[in-house]
Specification:
12 strands, Aspartate Aminotransferase, domain 1, alpha/beta, globular, 386 residues, seven-stranded mixed sheet, 15 helices, Aspartate Aminotransferase, domain 2
Length: 386
């Protein structure tokens, strides 16, 4: 299906005699029925009927249709946050006594779910492995392994997993696979084509793109999405509001042009940093010589605008002064919006949080500013790091 058609036209013929250019927001919690029989039939099949916005809503359903099409999936669900999508998808696939294999150093709250909070409470074991080599995942498989969780690339060191190899391995052992695809978006990577079962997104990032909505997406087969819908989705209630779904629909309109600009600008900023004399290492999946580069290019069409650098200086004071002095690069968590952001690893004070990262690391998220403006801002303040 044509990308432009999905982003701008798919599902938007609402068929009620009106023809709005922008789809309406169905800001309603409830839907009524004219006959008892209509009501009865809807209750018998809540998945396919409008009853209550906790389950289905026309605005949210339009977003579901578009996201499923973008990922090449049969169906999708939309959640109130990325973590709601991640936790619901994971919890739907495991039970007490199960074993889960996850890539090491995933998103911090995913790690909390598996190792510090929910899993231990309900008797689910997690093994964290270096997923850059599929053999590590294979060696970690146990008779009770039910799930393999991936994050390719991840959001700090951009480790890449070979999705095709892992997909084949998982199906051989009857294991479900889930991947966080937030970094690439469906435009630059479609994991389902490589045999992955479920794809989750923190839609607050590139999909929304305007830093004004928190949301999550899960895409996959109708069978697996139904399983999540009838249990974790409706029971835990981590649903998105119709208005926030509408904001995401608006964000999708410009997804292609935003990602093209961001990817191109990131390449220019990285080229500058390679030659600036203050950088020891750059983490970026498409950087020549980086581990996993060829795997990334085999399964991704482009890289996005997120990358990290390790500085030559070990002076925390110098790094803080540098970060404090930047104008275009704002300091904040998250990424993927219109604004360019940085987050220095020396910010973290919570014990154990990202303890694998060196103190002289900075993560960059390229936004919609010009490459010249972003590079100029860095160049003006490089002397603080020398």
């Amino acid at each position: 299906m044509d990308l432009s058609f999905i982003l701008n036209n798919l599902g938007e013929d609402i068929g009620n005699g009106s023809s709005p250019v922008t789809p309406p927001i169905y800001q309603t919690s409830n839907f009524y029925f004219k006959t008892v029989e209509d009501f009865r039939q809807a209750i018998l099949s809540e998945r396919d009927h409008l009853i209550y916005t906790r389950g289905n809503n026309p605005t949210i359903d339009l977003l579901r249709i578009k996201m499923a099409a973008l990922e090449g999936a049969e169906d999708a669900l939309v959640f109130a946050s990325g973590m709601a999508a991640i936790s619901s998808a994971i919890l739907a696939m495991v039970k007490t006594g199960d074993h889960v294999i996850s890539v090491q150093h995933p998103y911090s709250w995913t790690d909390t779910l598996m190792n510090s909070n929910i899993f231990p409470k309900f008797g689910i074991e997690a093994t964290m492995v270096d997923g850059t080599d599929a053999r590590n995942i294979e060696q970690a498989i146990k008779p009770n392994t039910s799930l393999i969780y991936l994050e390719s690339p991840n959001s700090w060191t951009f480790d890449v997993q070979n999705l095709g190899e892992i997909g084949v391995l998982a199906k051989k052992h009857g294991i479900i696979t889930i991947i966080d695809n937030s970094y690439s978006t469906p435009l630059y990577q479609q994991p389902l084509k490589n045999g992955i079962d479920l794809v989750v997104h923190t839609a607050s990032k590139y999909l929304g793109g305007h830093s004004d909505v928190v949301a999550g997406i899960c895409c996959g087969s109708r069978e697996l999405i139904d399983k999540i819908f009838h249990n974790e989705f409706c029971t835990l209630g981590g649903i998105i509001s119709p208005f926030n779904a509408w904001l995401l629909l608006r964000g999708l309109r410009t997804l292609q042009v935003r990602m093209e600009h961001i990817s191109r600008t990131a390449g220019e900023v990285i080229a500058f940093l390679q030659d600036c004399g203050i950088v020891e290492k750059i983490f970026y999946p498409f950087l020549e010589g980086n581990p996993g580069m060829q795997t990334a290019k085999n399964q991704m069409t482009k890289a996005s605008g997120l990358f990290s650098i390790v500085l030559k200086t070990r002076s925390t004071a110098a790094i803080e002064e540098f970060c404090n002095s930047l104008t275009y690069w704002r300091m904040a968590v998250s990424w993927g919006g219109f604004e360019s952001l940085i987050i220095p690893s020396c910010t973290f004070v919570r014990p154990g949080l990202y303890s694998n990262l060196p103190d002289n690391m900075i993560r960059f998220s390229v936004g919609l500013e010009t490459a010249d403006a972003l590079i100029g801002d860095l160049e003006k303040n490089l002397h603080l790091l020398r």
